[in-house]
């Protein structure tokens, strides 16, 4: 089960830009490791996010992760 986590320990680092960077890193690492292109990758939030933090920074972060997967075409394994 692939887990990708870098500096997700506070709301301040949960940005769309960081999500995009982390998403691209995860895709590249999965490809390097030879994981199937349809592998499920987990992106943890390593702090107690509540209320507006979930609907703000955390949601923004995961939108960035989604952007990376769209940009990189990870469902087909292409770059």
Give the tags:
79 residues; mainly alpha; 51% helix
Structure description:
The protein has 79 residues and is mainly alpha-helical. Helix content is 51%, strand content 0%. It is built from 2 helices and no strands. The protein has helices spanning 16-33, 51-72. The longest helix is centred in the C-terminal third of the chain and has 22 residues, at 51-72. It is elongated, with a radius of gyration of 13 Å. The chain starts with 15 loop residues before the first helix and ends in a 7-residue tail after the last helix. Residues 74-79 have low confidence and may be disordered.
Characterize this entry briefly:
InterPro entries: Rv2525c-like_Glyco_Hydro-like. With 79 residues, this protein is mainly alpha-helical.
Unreliable runs: 74-79
Q: What best-fitting shape do the alpha-carbon axes yield?
A: elongated
Strand content: under 5%
The biggest beta sheet is recorded as: none
What's the SSE pattern? HH
Mean pLDDT: 88
Distance between the amino and carboxyl termini: 22 Å
Quickly count the helices: 2
Helical percentage = 40-55%
Radius of gyration: 13 Å
Structural class: mainly alpha
Task: List how many beta strands DSSP finds.
Answer: 0
InterPro entries: Rv2525c-like_Glyco_Hydro-like (IPR015020)
Pfam family, one: Rv2525c_GlyHyd-like
Domain Rv2525c-like glycoside hydrolase-like: 1-77
Organism: Goodfellowiella coeruleoviolacea
